[in-house]
Specification:
The structure is a homodimer. The first copy, chain A, starts with a helix and ends in a 21-residue tail after the last helix. Chain A is elongated and about 50 Å long. Chain A is about 50% helix and about 5% strand. In chain A, helix 1 runs antiparallel to helix 4 and helix 1 packs across helix 5. In chain A, strands 1-2 form a two-stranded antiparallel sheet. Chain A is mainly alpha-helical and about 120 residues long. About 10% of the residues of chain A have low confidence. In chain A, strand 1 and strand 2 form a beta hairpin. Chain A contains six helices and two strands. At the A-B interface, helix 1, helix 2, helix 3, helix 5 and helix 6 of A face helix 1, helix 2, helix 3, helix 5 and helix 6 of B. Chain A binds a DNA duplex (30 and 30 nucleotides) through helix 4.
Chain lengths: ~120, ~120
DNA sequence: TGTCTACTTAGCGAAGTTGTTAATTAACTA
DNA sequence: TAGTTAATTAACAACTTCGCTAAGTAGACA
């Protein structure tokens, strides 16, 4: 789980953290302000924030005893880039996909995946 | 972690699983075919696949002793919808964001987040 | 029937996550 | 100096995840 994308997805896999990001999207906020809407302890919030920081989604600065947090979208852009491949499937742009399938499908049974010489029955659609 | 989006993000937070999705984006594949590129045991693959199935990202069918798997993009569409809010930050369409910030920022210190009556020093930028 | 292939389930251990409370650090304030 | 506020760290319990090996199920085929 050391790669950037995995870290980002893992950070996003929590409703509390996504809620915090949504709040930061509306503007900077301190740790207490981010904690307010949630019914969990400050240490728990602090740790959620650390997860977001480690994922590069949040940057903390200092202002006296406060720690204003700011949203950093670079990792989300990487998620968006990753999504591009799959977006073709649900945005109706099937042109490139269809072409892709036509190119890849015939290679299926010669790929490393098929370990037995036995042929699988092809179902006609 | 019971909500759909969290389950989807958690499923995506693993390079092996994302690799399997990428393979399925090129066309249907059996469990063995999905296992082939990875240096892990079949049971491990089977479980990764179950995670993807539980997230609704993969649908398994039956063909004799084979289990052809197919990509299901509905959960990815939901991720894409969730991304929409943040996409404004890195796609150069700052118009709505700027407007948003102008509306939200003045409310900051009257929000539930500030528990003390004490005013925080505002830094001029 | 017996064996092969494809795949899943069970059981284990190591490691990580998420919450808690209690204690600690750091900065402001009276 | 002493007290308050903001936030973090430490220590712990409950639970999940991810890998493994071994064993089990189910279909094809000789």
């Amino acid at each position: 789980m050391s790669d950037t994308l995995s870290t980002t997805f893992a950070a996003l896999a929590d409703p509390t953290r996504r809620s915090m990001l949504a709040q930061l999207a509306r503007g900077e906020a301190t740790v207490s302000e981010l904690a307010a809407p949630h019914a969990i302890s400050m240490p728990a919030i602090s740790r959620h924030l650390k997860v977001l920081e480690n994922a590069g989604l949040v940057v903390k600065s200092r202002d006296a005893q406060w720690r204003p947090c700011r949203l950093e979208v670079a990792p989300l852009r990487r998620v968006d880039d990753w999504m591009a491949v799959y977006r073709e499937f649900f945005e109706g742009r099937f042109d490139r996909l269809t072409e892709h399938l036509k190119t890849m499908q015939p290679d299926r049974d010669t790929s490393a995946g098929r370990r037995t010489p036995r042929q699988r029955k092809e179902k006609r659609s």
